[in-house]
Amino acid sequence: MAYGKRFKMAVRIARFQNCYGPEGTWQGGREKAPAAICRKIAQARQSDEIEVWGDGSAVRSYTYIDDMLDGICRLMQSDLEGPVNIGNPEYVTVDELVATAAAVSGKHIKIRHVEGPVGVHSRNFSNARIESLGWRAQWPLRRGIEQTYPWIAAQVANSTAQV
Questions:
Q1: Where does the chain show beta strands of DSSP type E?
Q2: Domain containing residue 104
Q3: Is 33 among the domain residues?
């Protein structure tokens, strides 16, 4: 912003809200919650239990990659300047995220809540600026997980087969 002001250059800053989807990081501790949950479920057998940090009540929103890319393109082709939030207004608890991924997998999964970093309980995130450009998230969580889970399950199967 300082550089833009000094040199009279338009600066657009896209602020992302928990982006996920196929081809993303799915292991190693740097992955977002949807990928981590999909991986844990892919590794689990029917009726297994997976560990989830916290009590499962933390609320988040997850934005599918296609929505994120559409938002970035609209922002860069606009006259908006400064920070612009791009995120899905569908908020779910961690337990609801697990239930969605388990339903997509076709597995009955139990949750064991364990101590671990959970961050703030909920975030306040306004998409008003990007929505002023006509952008709206088109991918509800279930639809995005339906694309993401099979890809992660294939990565898990491939990594297990190579061991």
A1: 12-16, 19-20, 49-53, 59-61, 63-64, 82-86, 91-93, 110-114
A2: 12-22+29-154
A3: yes
